[in-house]
Amino acid sequence: MKISGTSCSQVWSRLASHTALATVLLGGGATQLYSQIPQETQPAEAAPVTSDNAFFCNAKALNPAEREHHKLLTAKLISARTQIVELDKGYEFQFRPSEISLAELGGWVVTEAKCCPFFNFHIDLENEGTLLCLRLTGKPGIKSFIQSEFNVPAK
After folding, report:
1. Which of 90, 100, 146, 151 would be a feasible disulfide site paired with 95, CB 3.0-4.6 Å?
2. Dihedral sign, Cα of residue 109, residue 136, residue 12, residue 51
3. Largest alpha-carbon pair distance within the chain?
């Protein structure tokens, strides 16, 4: 997701760094330091917006702890994928339930939906419980966004 030319993961990373530094330096007074962060690195105040080829995340939808947990779980999901299936309106990511639990995937969807409500999420448990699938779909243009944000290799 792009926010002033910066991807959502970059914004989250910057915000986490700024918040952690502020917490250490100010003993919890992160809000004072946050207000001094240059405007271009602060997330937009408005709710997420979509247009033809641009998808924007609401980075303020998650608190710093949620953001950090979500970042770690996203990395786990990306590394645990067993297959990526390209769909007309998005992608399906497949997992082994022994590596990614249904509860973890469901929790990830709940958190992702807070900051990126423009996604359509579909979770399936198939093949007698041996295949866990996450389909991410959405409006036209979502596929290129998913490719960049979820490290989908180019064909």
Report:
1. 100
2. negative
3. 53
